[in-house]
Amino acid sequence: MSDSSLPVDNHTPSPAESTMQKSPKADIYAKHSSITEYMSDSIYRNQPIQSDGLSWPAKNTRERSTESKEEAELRLEKLKTAICTVIECIGEDPTRPGILKTPERYAKAMLFFTKGYEQSIHDMINDALFEEDHEEMVLVKDISTFSLCEHHLVPFQNKIAIGYIPNRSVLGLSKLVRVAEMFSQRLQVQERLTKQIAIALNDILKPQGVAVLIESSHMCMAMRGVQKPESKTITSYMLGQFRDNIKTREEFLTLVRS
């Protein structure tokens, strides 16, 4: 059959097909042969804890964590100016008495809400890793933390449960809480928060398994958008025995619910 006898495709792409062809996601996946490869090209390719104790530092994290007192003051002033601009843009008067000091108050609050970026896990653990011949589950639950949603910069409240099965090493119980707080005090999404806590503890303890379960209430769903203040979001991440052994996983989930 000659080329001239082949059927001609005169199909014109629909608007929906054209949108799909131009989708940013299509460009992302074009660079990777599979979603697995795409995920491996994320922050999790990096060591969870760097040599200086920072964990998955962002682009400007080290600049903040190593700055001098003078540099910290300049950072605060820059943040105050930005917040003053926000107040103007929503139609308020930043010189009004009730708002006059709001930029400074909010700037300091924002730095506190995100102090997890500059914290070192090495300093946090502080020799609280002990050798102990204990090979049954250790569970700490009902750990309350707050995070800022990275999409809207409004809070979400977390109730966290952390379990692990030691491999001849145990961690001071308060350190489990501090690790959860450190990762919470960043711009976050709940799914990443769950995963980061689990992977970091797995790196610190080298245990037989780690499990993290988080139940959160998101103000971005309560105050805007769908406006469902009673909704809860639950995420989990399992490693080692918790992932491989269904009975171990069920024991963890039963203890969390009890």
Descriptive labels:
5-stranded mixed β-sheet, alpha+beta, 12 helices, GTP Cyclohydrolase I, domain 2, single chain, 258 residues, GTP Cyclohydrolase I, Chain A, domain 1, 7 strands, globular, two-stranded antiparallel sheet
Task: Characterize this entry briefly.
The chain has 258 residues and is an alpha+beta fold.
Give the helix/strand layout.
Layout (H helix, E strand, L loop, with lengths): L14 H7 L2 H7 L4 H6 L20 H5 L3 H21 L12 H12 L7 H5 L3 E3 L6 E12 L5 E11 L3 E3 L1 H12 L2 E2 L1 H16 L3 E10 H4 L10 E8 H4 L1 H12 L1
Helix pairs in contact: 5-6, 8-9
Structural overview:
- The protein is an alpha+beta fold and 258 residues long.
- The chain has 3 domains: 18-42, no CATH class; 61-117, GTP cyclohydrolase I, N-terminal domain (GTP Cyclohydrolase I, Chain A, domain 1); 132-257, GTP Cyclohydrolase I, domain 2 (2-Layer Sandwich).
- Helices cover 43% and strands 19% of the residues.
- The protein is built from 12 helices and 7 strands.
- The strands form 2 sheets. A 5-stranded mixed sheet has the order 5-2-3-6-7, sandwiched between helices. It has a two-stranded antiparallel sheet with strand order 1-4.
- Helix 8 runs antiparallel to helix 9 (190-205).
- The protein is globular and about 60 Å long.
- Keywords: Folate biosynthesis, GTP-binding, Hydrolase, Nucleotide-binding.
- Pfam families: GTP_cyclohydroI.
